[in-house]
Structure formats: C-alpha cells, structure tokens
Amino acid sequence: MLLSPIDSGLPGFSTSDASYKVYRQRILFVCIFYLVVASLLAVLVRYGVMDEDFHLTAGKSFVDSGLNRTTLYNHIPPTGVASHLWYAFWMWLLPGISFVGLRLITCAVLALVVGLTYFKLRTLSTTLQRRFLAASWFTFISPYFFLSTSTVMTEGPALLFVFAGLLLLFVSQLQNLFPLFLASLFLGLATVARFYYIPLLPALFVVLILSEWQQYVAKASLTFTGRKLLPYLFILISLLPLVGLIVLWGGLTPPSFNKWSHLRSGVSFNVLRPVSTSAIIGVYIAPFVLLNVSWKSVLFKRTLLATLPIALLLALFQVNLFHTSSIGNVFSGPIEHSLAHMQVRSTLMLRLGLFLLYSLSFVSLACVIQRMTLVIRERDFTDKALIYSITFVGFFVASQAFIGGNHPFYERYLIHPWPFIGYILAAILPEFLTTRTYLFMAIYTMVSIAILARWGLD
Hints:
This protein is mainly alpha-helical. 69% of the residues lie in helices and 0% in strands.
C-alpha cells in the first residue's frame, strides 16, 4: 500500500503550481518566526541556564591551549567535542565575543540553512513539500527547541550540523557524490557534537543498502563498481573522528569526566532505558496521534483493549518508567516535575498520573507502530526521508540500552529524534496539519518558551 498524498486539511489548497509556492512560503514563514523568537530569547535570557558555564569553559580551553591530543584527552563534557570546537572557533575568530553573540551566531547560521533549504524546495512535489512543512513545524515546536538554540549548549551546534547534513543529503539524492560526501561529514560532526546522534550514519548506511536492493529488484541484477562503493567509504571516513575519540579516551566518555563527576559512565547495558525513552516519546506525540486517528475504528478499539490494562497494572504497582526528579530540578521536564509533585501529594495521585501517562503513551505508540508496519510490509521505500527517519528513531531508542551508569533519560534529550519523529508523523498520518493540530503546536511552543523562561528570565 503506497502512502497516499497528505490532505491539506485547509481550504483553498490544490496541487497546482501556485500551491508549491504557498507551501514554500509557509515553511519560510514558520522558520523565520521561530528563529526570531529564538534570537530574542538569546538576548533576554540570562547567562548560566543549566550548564552553559560548563560548556563555555570547555570551549575556552581549546581557545587557550589549541586543538591537540592533550586538550582532547583532558576534555571534560561527556557529550562530545564538536559543539565546544564550534564555540571555540567563534571565540578565536571574534575575541571578546559575549555569550549573547555566541547564541546569536547559532540562530544566524540556522537561518542560513533555512534559506538554502527554501530555494531547494522548488524541486519537491506538493506532497513532499507538505510533509516537509509539517516536519519543520514539528521540529520548532519541540518543548526543548528554544532551550537548545537560545543558549550556549551543545544541542544548538549539533542541530546545525544535522540540518546541514540532511539538506546536503537532499541535494545529493544519494547519487551526486560531492554533496553526499559533505552530507556524511556534517552528520559525522553531529555525531561527535552530541553522542546521541551516533545513529545518524548507520541509518544512512541502511538507506543506501535499501536503495541498492530496490535497484536489484527493478533490474534483476546487482553490480558493484567503485562509484557505488564510494558512499560507504564516505560513511567510514565520517566515523573516523568518533573512532579517534574512542581510541583516545578508551571509550565514549572522557577520563576527565569520570574524575570530575565521580559518576560511573561509558558503555554498559541498561535494559530499561530504551523502554523509558519509548514511553516518553509516546506521551509527547500523543496529542498529534490521537487527533489524527479514527476513534470509532475497530483497530483503535482493539488497541485500547490491549494497552489500557497494561497501563493500569503498571500504575497500580507504581512501576515508574519515567525519571522522577526532585521538585525544582532544572534539568527535568514537565512529566518529571509533574510526577515529583504527585509523589509528594499522595500515592493515589501518583498512580493516577502514571495511569494517564502510560495510557497516552502506549495507545499513541501502538497507533504509530501499526502505520509504520504497513509501510515496511509493503516494502514501499520510495520516500527515502521516511525510511531514514524510521531507521534513525529505531536506532536511537535501541542505543539507549548502552548508556552507561544509571543516568536518566531526561525529557530534553527528545530534541535529538524530534525532527525525525515529526517527518514520520507527517508521512503516516493522513491529515497531520489541521486546525486541531495547530492548536497543540501553539501549546507546545508556549511550553518551550516557558521552560526556558522559567530558568533563564528574572
């Protein structure tokens, strides 16, 4: 079953040439609006939100001592090095630049990537432009978008590298070697900027393999040439910085971090973390999924009968798959803070809260998995962006099993798979952009501003 074109859900839209321009304009307007808000917050928010000082200090060490084996070995933040090198580059290029300047540079380069993407959208069909509009909008309404881009955190530069890499992948169409090589390099940079992006290049490998398989099915023959092997070589080259850091540190965590924090970190097996990650994803996408499925369908009713009893049992036994923070913990999100308040009030409140969260999560995840299963069973791999998004999210969730120690999966880590989740929802839900969806997008935007304002504005 091929994915049907997404109905606009809005009056006056058609598949004419005029609608192409309308979609591009809407995408540009949405991006500009959120980047303007991000820039304003970058100026207004005080310095020191979360661990800004920690990351800025790490960047300054490269400015003071240069980029060499010693500074890399003595690097402390466990997230990677590329984001700190990004800040170090601008501090070296513009001596005396303030933290506000560093924040605004991130927003400005994001705007540049948006502008380049706008001109490339002309080659997309109406259906794909609509999916891109939905995914872009979904990316910006992430409750942690402003926290990532309006502060001196490692997520902002990492997002830049990801978006630049995805744009170049789009330009290459997996055929033009030079943009494909650049795309691999940017995705490799994102990988060593935030280790949560390690699945980016393996997901690209899967898409390349599926493309080869499609050609084999179509032509009933498979040929290997040097040109066909080059994309895989690009992936290997782009993984070299990650491999180099692993060799230098003896693992994925800098030795200096373990000494500094006295935490057990690195690679180990953590079986519950992927489950916790999936549950949090399910809660956050629930409004968008439940607004776009038929509640009267037999399949949806069966989904309720299968998931609600599980949610009830987990709640009754107070099995908490979410991270419960202390009240006032700056690193925690709305779910974590809500559970903390419920836990303080009474056991009954905690059980009710867990039941509500599990119900929303399990039902929405079940609906999404059912739709994605249809795509996989029909072997419809024409939309490479959809396949890439599904693969990345799957790898991202699975990779959480190897996060060392007992470090919780904070809600703000959802910024990593969020753009890919948005594209999946836009592709598998027939009417993703509707008036009802706009309402929740506005709510999520306000939550995003509130999360940053709570800790960053006096």
